[in-house]
Specification:
The protein is mainly alpha-helical. Helices cover 55% and strands 9% of the residues. The protein is built from five helices and two strands; from the N terminus they run E-E-H-H-H-H-H. The chain has a two-stranded antiparallel sheet with strand order 1-2. Strand 1 and strand 2 form a beta hairpin. Helix 4 runs antiparallel to helix 5. The C terminus is likely disordered.
């Protein structure tokens, strides 16, 4: 647990502060949160009809990672901050690959959808492995490539 100054008063000589969570606590919460997200955990080769649900899940993950970044003890360049930003960027890239309202993952785009999904999962797994190694935590275990179509 740390302390972060949030504001200072000039003539009242006051300082406002709040308790912050340690990087290790935040790292565990991130791994626990991501452990059951649909976009990361339910099978590897997904039918295109699941694209909208995966995009919604990715959007939720992206927003939650922003919240976790706000909880970090120091706004500097901690390893965890770098890893969480890389994870958030992975979700952003997946959302952008889907296009506005997911139109790029529409009918007939199962291959594009699954390729974007594979890129996202690989990136998140890599970052999660680094986080779990750094903080000695139980890592994120995403499904293997089993079941992928041979064309991917």
């Amino acid at each position: 647990m740390g302390i972060r100054q949030t504001s200072v008063s000039a003539f009242g000589f006051g300082v406002v502060w709040e308790f912050t969570k340690s990087d290790k606590v935040v790292a565990q919460k991130v791994l626990d949160f991501l452990a059951d997200k649909r976009v990361l955990t339910v099978g590897r080769a997904r039918p295109q009809v699941e694209a909208a649900r995966c995009l919604a899940s990715a959007s939720e993950c992206r927003a939650k990672l922003t919240e976790y970044l706000d909880q970090l003890e120091k706004p500097g360049k901690t390893d965890l901050r770098t890893w969480l930003r890389a994870m958030r960027e992975g979700f952003t890239n997946f959302l952008e690959a889907g296009g506005h309202n997911g139109e790029r993952f529409g009918s007939g785009s199962e291959r594009e959808f699954n390729e974007a999904l594979a890129l996202l999962r690989d990136r998140i797994q890599q970052q999660a492995d680094e986080v779990s190694d750094r903080y000695k935590l139980t890592g994120l275990s995403l499904p293997e490539h089993e079941g992928w179509p041979d064309s991917l």
